[in-house]
Dihydrolipoyl dehydrogenase (Variovorax ureilyticus), 476 residues
Amino acid sequence: MSDKQFDVVVIGGGPGGYVAAIRAAQLGFNVACIDEWKNAKGGPALGGTCTNIGCIPSKALLQSSEHFEHAGHAFADHGIKVEGLDIDVAKMLARKDNVVKQNNDGIVYLFKKNKVAFFHGRGSFVKASDAGYEIKVSGAAEESITGKHIIVATGSNARPLPGAPFDEENILSNDGALRVGAVPKKLALIGSGVIGLEMGSVWRRLGAEVTVLEALPTFLGAVDEQIAKEAKKAFDKQGLKIHLGVNVGEVKSGKNGLSIAYTDAKGEAQKLDVDKLIVSIGRIPNTIGLNPESVGLQLDERGAIVVDDECKTSLPNVWAIGDVVRGPMLAHKAEEEGVAVAERIAGQHGHVNFNTIPWVIYTSPEIAWVGQTEQQLKASGRAYKAGTFPFLANGRARALGDTTGMVKFLADAATDEILGVHMVGPMVSELISEAVVAMEFKASAEDIARICHAHPSLSEATKEAALAVDKRTLNF
């Protein structure tokens, strides 16, 4: 096999792509991965949106801003005095950039360790051949490679607001929201999506006045209604201004910021003047430059690559995973699909259970869930039992000084099988995994209720919520 011919070529080096490449290499294939992302010096920056302008840098900023808020508001309760509190935004951003670089470098190391050939540039289809598919790499030096199997993992891009394209100075996507050089006095979010809420939380903690304009009449419509209401109550208390049922009109950008015209839920005209605007109205599949028409690769009406349940496309030996296909746009969903596809290429039975994919919003309080919501169960007519337990009654939460929120279990009324677990509160991004494992193994609420949980721990709230399904909580 020549150095330009591979068993598997992965287009895209984000969470789905780089994991697919590594797993394929582990299975004995000769693998190449193409990714065009560049760092500030023009070098490769593997990890895709998640590592560069998504999950990883946003968590770094969330952690920094949480430290700042604790120092300003919570430390006094612990007897810790802080005088002259200030925020060095440049240093905070530099730390974020370093965290990103560590993750970029880590993937480069993993490619070397697993003997994955890396090509820095944009990958695009050229033609099908007897050896597979010819892929052009457009980078510093243009070249062509051939793969018997192709895995497309090109991710997604932020959806712009019609009539107000991103300039990443005043009108920001997740990219620009991570690079704001100073704390804005007034910040607006259009859309109460995950990215917007997380970045809004960062700048609110640091002193910005944050207003959320959401077109839908409900807040966090995908979240269990009881949990969403609890989260909104916490956000309202923090000073996050959330306006639901609005219709955004013209956005004017000027020297002194932006002016946003909108009609509120009552149909009355309103105007909001802000320094910065974050647009968080969803993401669209990224096939820019992929040249799918050259090989007849089928896309749907959203621009996503059409795949079946096993991530097979309309073409033989061409697969697609992650944000560029159907399903939730989550990094961990992309990773699982990447592993599954590599194993299917090897003749194994890769497995992805969409019913047990966890969701997390890293605000404060955090929001996490897996499985069906109460409103979904009601709509489907399935008989269920519910149990809740508040962090207010959890000893570890009291010691932490954060008793906001609750854990909620939903179980089948007849069999007690866990159908959904929903959480809002401290560190629930870590607690949700227990529910994922339980649901994957078809556990009952009674199973969790009977398992010994460490005391004192936040995880006891999970046990108590499972006990609450049978109306026998011990601490509330």
Summary: The first helix runs from residue 15 to 26.
